[in-house]
Every structure is written in C-alpha cells, then in structure tokens.
C-alpha cells in the first residue's frame, strides 16, 4: 500500500479494502446503516406534520428542529449514486447492460411503489366524489404510476404517494445511468457527471426550463454525482486514512446540523445538505476501519434493507395511532412518548411490508431477470473497462 496525504491506495484492488462486507452484491454494511438512519430522519418532518396539521398542536414539541430530517433525502440520493456504480461493476461495457440494469431497478422500485400508490388511489376514490375534488386528474394519476413529474390541477408536482417525488429523480437517474453502462466505468461516471452539471448550470443561467426538464434539472441531481465519484474512488482502490475518514464524517454531521445556526434554507440545498451528505458517505465507505459487528449495528443494517419500505409506508403508518388507538397515549400529555409510538408504528409496519411483500416480490422478479440470456461483454480496449482491460 502507498500512503499519500491521508489517502491509502490499495494496490491489490477493491476487494482488499478493509471493512468491506463481501457477498453477492458486495454491499457495505455502513451504507445499509446509513440508509436506515436516512429513512428514520425522513420520518421526523412528517411527525412534525402530524402534530401541527392533524393534531393541531404545533406547540408541544420543538418541531422546527424536526425539519432537519429532510437531509435524509439528500443522503438517499448520494447513496443511490454510490450504489449504482458500485453494484453495476459487472455490467459496464456490455451491450445488454442498459435493459438488464433498468429491469433490475424496476423490479426493485416499481412493485411496492405501485402498491402504495394503488392503496392511496383507492382511498381517494372512496373519500371524494371525483378526482378533481382531491386535486387530482387522470393524467396526474397516470404520471404518478409512470414516475413522471406532472402537475396536479393546482400546479403542485407531487405524486399520489407524496414522498414519491424523489423517485421521479431516481428513475430519471436510472435511465441516464443505464445508457452510461455501455461505456467504461470511468467514462460513464464522467459523462453522466458532465451532463448533470450542464443541466443544473443551464437552468440557473438560462432560467427555469419548462417541466418535466425543469424538474429534472434541479441542482439536487448533483447529489447522485457525489455518490458516483465516491463509488468510483472505492472501485479504483482508494480508501482514506482513519483520521481523515472520521474527520469527513464529523464535518458532514456538523455542517448538516449547523444549518440551524445560519437558518434553514439560507444556502442552496445542494450546499446546505447535499455536501454534508456526501462527506458522511465518503467518510464511511472509504474508511479503512473494520465495520462493527455489534448487534445494534446489525439491527440497523437490517432496517437499512427495509428502508425503501419504511420510506414509502411511513406517511400512512403515522396516521394509524390517531385513527385506530387514539386513547393508547395522549399526545398532549406525553408528546415525546407519542413521538416514539409513531416511530415504532412506522418501523414495525415497514418491517412487515418488507418481509411479507417487498423482499419476496423483488427476489422473484430478480430471478426472472437473471435467467434472461446474457450477451458477451464487448471487447473494446479503452472503452469496455475503466483501465482499458476487463475488470
């Protein structure tokens, strides 16, 4: 190994990076833990909404502090960029990579999202006389299922499942990344990065584009770029010295929390929360420190596996205590205990959905995709792999 300015270059390759959890997907436990923390963070602003709008008691908790939970979305975007590059290693440079990759992502994302959207659509149809009364239209409903940013009658670009707005960015990223897989790892990451930077810069310099391009060109897409470059660094065999890795994590946490010092949204979101999220992810995954095997760490890792269910299910789950057992805990007398109840109900519901629906359905679909005939990797020196040779 060669140490230089806080970096450690592992000549043996990425598999030799300490702290890596080996396996079929080569996933990092730290990423799963971070996904769990991100999903839990996203719940906080919706607890804010439950107290403020549904219970009519915004004075019971320091709810403004809960808004920092929105940084969980930025963590998810950075993690998504990282995971796409990291797990797609066998696909770079293959002619069948785009459709195989996109099918696998659809198998992972679509079933649960369509299921939750279907439940919410059924609720809307039962509660309201027509779609217009619920601020919906046939086109906005269809767009929700198609992951397409389309305005509701009042102009709001929010799908049936409100948290699904992030998936409109995810699917856009997946479509671009799928095409990039025809290239080498390095060329794909560089090309997608330049495209996203150009989009974000153009919408700032030339004024907002019409939707959907205006939606997709939001600078938040650069958080995917942060994650891709972190994964590229890991795949190139780079890890950080322990002091530097810890420093990045602490700096990211301090910068994210510090948004309350200078005021929320005083800076562009990409700077306020995107950069801190990138620092935390980089510090964790590029650290040479072996990952913990403690029970709590592994439990968070499992919750990270269920984080997609938790993300999509929690807005509905948070309504269950108020609707079905309102006398269990008085939110006025015990607001913090009621907050813990909301978190526990959301986590419990997500685990049930993950185990009973998301995991088996995804596994079944992934097996069908894996059974598809494979085409050989294109043998194009300097194009089919990051270094000019097959990885």
Folded structure, characterized:
The structure is a single chain. Helix 4 packs antiparallel against helix 6 (165-180) and helix 14 packs across helix 16. The protein is mainly alpha-helical. 38% of the residues are buried. It has helices spanning 29-54, 63-66, 71-87, 97-127, 138-145, 165-180, 185-205, 213-216, 222-235, 242-257, 259-262, 269-285, 295-305, 307-317, 320-324, 335-370, and strands at 2-4, 7-9, 238-240.
Secondary-structure blueprint of this entry?
Layout: E1 2-4, E2 7-9, H1 29-54, H2 63-66, H3 71-87, H4 97-127, H5 138-145, H6 165-180, H7 185-205, H8 213-216, H9 222-235, E3 238-240, H10 242-257, H11 259-262, H12 269-285, H13 295-305, H14 307-317, H15 320-324, H16 335-370
Antiparallel strand pairs: 1-2, 2-3
Helix pairs in contact: 1-3, 1-13, 1-14, 3-6, 3-9, 3-12, 4-6, 4-14, 4-16, 7-9, 9-12, 10-12, 14-16
Individual helix count: 16
Low-confidence runs of at least 5 consecutive residues: 1-27, 379-391
Using only CA atoms, what is the Rg?
Answer: 22 Å
Structural class comes to mainly alpha
Q: What percentage of residues falls in helices of 4 or more residues?
A: 55-70%
Mean pLDDT: 86
Strand order, main sheet: write it out.
Answer: 1-2-3
Reported for the largest beta sheet, the result is: 3 strands, antiparallel
Query: Which oligomeric state applies?
Result: single chain
- Helix-strand pattern: EEHHHHHHHHHEHHHHHHH
**Broad shape:** globular
- Strand runs, count: 3
Terminal-residue CA separation: 20 Å
DSSP strand content: under 5%
Number of domains: 1
């Amino acid at each position: 190994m060669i140490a230089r300015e806080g970096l450690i270059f592992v000549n043996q390759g990425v598999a030799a990076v300490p702290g890596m959890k080996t396996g079929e997907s080569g996933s990092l436990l730290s990423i799963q833990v971070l996904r769990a923390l991100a999903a839990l963070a996203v719940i906080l602003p919706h607890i804010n909404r439950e107290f403020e709008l549904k219970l009519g008691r915004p004075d019971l908790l320091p709810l403004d502090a809960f808004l920092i939970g929105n940084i969980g979305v930025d963590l998810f975007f950075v993690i998504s960029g990282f995971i796409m590059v990291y797990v797609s290693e066998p696909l770079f440079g293959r002619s069948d990579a785009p459709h195989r990759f996109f099918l696998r992502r659809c198998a992972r994302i679509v079933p649960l999202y369509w299921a939750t959207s279907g439940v919410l659509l059924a609720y809307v149809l039962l509660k309201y006389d027509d779609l217009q009364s619920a601020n919906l239209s046939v086109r906005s409903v269809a767009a929700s299922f198609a992951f397409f940013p389309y305005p509701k009658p009042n102009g709001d670009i929010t799908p049936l499942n409100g948290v699904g707005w992030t998936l409109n960015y995810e699917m856009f990223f997946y479509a671009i990344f799928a095409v990039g897989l025809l290239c080498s790892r390095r060329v794909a990451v560089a090309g997608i990065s330049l495209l996203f930077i150009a989009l974000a810069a153009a919408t700032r310099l030339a004024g907002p584009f019409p939707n959907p391009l205006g939606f997709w060109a939001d600078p938040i897409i650069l958080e995917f770029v942060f994650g891709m470059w972190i994964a590229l660094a890991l795949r190139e065999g780079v890890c950080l010295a322990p002091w530097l890795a810890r420093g990045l994590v602490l700096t990211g946490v301090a910068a994210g929390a510090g948004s309350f010092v200078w005021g929320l949204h005083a800076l562009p979101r990409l700077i306020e929360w995107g950069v801190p999220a990138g620092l935390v992810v980089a510090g964790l995954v590029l650290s040479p420190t072996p990952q913990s095997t403690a029970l709590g760490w592994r439990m968070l890792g499992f919750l990270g596996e269920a984080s997609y269910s938790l993300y999509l299910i929690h807005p509905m789950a948070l309504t269950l205590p108020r609707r079905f057992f309102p006398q269990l805990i008085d939110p006025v007398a015990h607001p913090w205990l009621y907050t813990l109840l909301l978190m526990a109900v959301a986590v419990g519901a997500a685990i049930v959905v993950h185990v009973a629906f998301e995991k088996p359905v995804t596994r079944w679909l992934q097996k069908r995709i894996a059974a598809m005939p494979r085409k050989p990797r294109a043998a194009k020196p300097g194009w089919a792999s990051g270094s000019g040779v097959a990885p």
